[in-house]
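Tutorial handout. Part one gives the primary structure; part two gives the three-dimensional structure as tokens.
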Amino acid sequence: VGISVVPLSRQVQGTGGSSAISKCSTAARGYIQDRFLRLLAGRRRRRAPLIHRGYYVRARAVDHCVQDFLLKTQSHPRTQVLSLGAGFDSLYFRLKDMGLLHHTVVYEVDFPNVVCQKATLIKRMEELSALVGDAMQEGLGAITFSGEYYKLLGVDLSELSELGRALQEAGLDNEIPTLFIAEVVLTYMENSRSDALIQWAAERFPRACFLLYEQVHPEDPFGRVMQQHFSQMNSALRSLTQYPDCEAQRRRFLGRGWTECSVMDMNEFFTCCIPEDEQRRVQALEPFDEYEEWHLKCSHYFVLTASKGMEPSWTPLLPSVTVPHHVGPVGMAGSVPAAVCARLSGIPGLRRYGHCSVLIKPDVILTTGGFGEEDGQHRRLRNFHVLSKHAGCWKAGCVTEKHPDKRWGERLYHTVSCISDSLALVVGGRMSPSSAGLGMLWLKFPETYNASDPDDIAVELVNLQPAAEPATLRWRHSTTEVTFKGEQYLFVYGGRSALEPVLGDWYFLHTRELSNTLIAVEGPVPESRHSHSACSWEGGVLIAGGLGAAEQPLGSVFLLRELEHGFRWQAVETYPPLIPRYSHTAHVHEGKLLLVGGVWFHASSVPGITVIDLMTGLCLDYVINV
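Part two.
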């Protein structure tokens, strides 16, 4: 089935309008300094913090590379920038206002109706027209608008001969240093046409640079959802099938006339090319707790720079800081087979995250809280869920909540610890990341029940106001059972709160009294972290991974070992080193620590199962084969 060109162009233009609104919202919240976006975006709408961060790192990458090009070519008498599919971008006005366009002409190309709208806006607003200058005039043919240093052209990028003619008429000089910019533009074109444009630019311009920002990694779960999102908007990402990763994109340019090419995904760019003080500024702008989505999004976008004939060479993607970065595929020791529980597929209430699942009896799993789908809406979930195994089969059911308690608060990122056959303790969690953390609750459930009927279980919530309550106002922490001098304690460690983005403290809660008990702890204190894993082992606790203060995944493993007079922190060395990860789960089985799933910055694969031998430190990664 073919799609006519006109509706497709409208859909692509729609993504440009949405992008302008998102950039405007990003500037309004202080992520970027750009007073021109509000004049060009038209409608104003506040976006979510996750969207703001995504557009911030995109704008930062483009500005970083553009300003590096202008700096490297400032000795040339004339240079030019050609922005492909520019939409309502404010690049020219921002650079002109900053005094960076002394001898540079900016050409913008987009669909004719888009550039006509933009030209009308510029002429109507003095703040914009003043930066274009007195030479501003109506263009002819494809040249919609022309100033001395700024020109708007209405041309379909896929028509190369027409594009070349229009640029020549507008005064583009093939012999001077030229920067091509394509921000999420080429991917909407047929690969044969976008490849031809890349090659055309290399062949026609002897001294040129190319800046590309696009999506990558269509094969993993996040990538599949990303493709589905754009397809639903009738704006399919066409380049992903042929160029699925950063290396394929690099080869694409090197095989079409470009002599140098560098590429980074946005996790690497944010970490390596943005100064640490600027990272901290951005991280503190808004309450934020969507780390997994943020890092997954960044691993699915990249910035690429290619050049030819440039002296000195143009290499804007050189890291300003050195951080451990995993290059190439993760060495996998094998795969672990996994099968879908067919009976449970599609069961309401199972699709959720930020929840807590706990074994309350043999073969009975209680799941509480989290974010998921309920009554056709995505929201924080209040309902409890139970899975029980009977006669070799798993069954799912919803739990009846006796005396519904407002203190439950639809919480996320809490912990649940089973204290007895009929009692579990809920510690911490949150509703909004800007509100205070939630305290503790008892969950009471019957000691016996009919295992063949998962719906035949009722849970009662009981309020608690113990002295230890302030210590539990946190989320993304861990709560682990430990033993000291024959007494049972819950070791509450790390996490974050509304005031502290990462915590490194800990508390021993006496299981019976729920009071905070002071127990001596010695040894090197682990780096503060949240979203780590914690397991009971030999009376102590194994802490693995997590997200540190700089929002960087950690690859360290620590054992809190019981001593005669208290506990001691002890680092567990792994060989090879554990790939930093967070938001995984963990289990100890037959002297081995198993880490399952989670998020890491290594974009070439999804975290599977890592097996750490606690006696030898041998660390092996396995793919979960589904």
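Part three, for discussion. The first strand starts at residue 79 and ends at 84. The chain has 13 helices and 35 strands.
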